[in-house]
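Q: Given only this backbone (189 positions), what sequence would you predict?
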């Protein structure tokens, strides 16, 4: 396993190209690009990969940890088929450590993510984790989005109207963790 020292770097999984960057006190996902179709999947509104909502046990104060800020020691390592990202030593809540793993699959041009949050604090409890957070660019005006409301729902032209979907997994209306966006030209994420 080798550690990456630069601030901006690229990984490939088949036709997918993922660009990550060390930013002020965190790590950002800058781009997910399909080299086969020439399509950028991320919109210009970049979101942090995760947000962890914490509550102080005694004061009931709530605090959000984000992948992009407040970390003293974010780290990216990789081997041939995996990216390992670690966030530790947060400036406010030092006892939280976050580990993300991205499995790169060349055969089907996919990236599979997992996240592990370790809380060694006796003062803070984890209320919820939002992961992964992505903002998908409009593929074309008639493109569709398949998202996990109930058994799964498809909405066409979703970028043309205000829309936000969230749900706590595994509640009855969020029974699976997925999202898919696609257009008539078979460009999909």
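A: Predicted residues:
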């Amino acid at each position: 396993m080798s550690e990456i020292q630069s601030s901006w770097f690229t990984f490939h999984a088949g036709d997918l190209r993922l660009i990550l960057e060390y930013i002020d006190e965190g790590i950002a996902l800058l781009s997910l690009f399909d080299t086969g179709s020439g399509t950028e999947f991320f919109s210009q509104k970049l979101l942090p990969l995760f947000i962890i909502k914490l509550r102080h046990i005694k004061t009931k104060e709530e605090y959000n940890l984000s992948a992009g800020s407040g970390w003293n020691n974010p780290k990216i390592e990789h081997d041939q088929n995996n990216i390992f990202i670690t966030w530790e030593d947060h400036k406010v809540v030092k006892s939280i450590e976050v580990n993300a793993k991205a499995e790169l699959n060349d055969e089907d041009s996919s990236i599979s993510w997992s996240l592990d949050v370790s809380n060694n604090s006796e003062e803070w409890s984890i209320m919820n984790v939002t992961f992964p957070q992505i903002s998908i660019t409009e593929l074309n005006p008639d493109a569709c989005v398949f998202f996990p409301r109930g058994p799964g729902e498809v909405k066409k032209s979703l970028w043309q109207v205000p829309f936000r979907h969230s749900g706590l997994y595994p509640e009855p209306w969020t029974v699976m963790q997925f999202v898919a966006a696609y257009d008539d030209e078979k460009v999909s994420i």
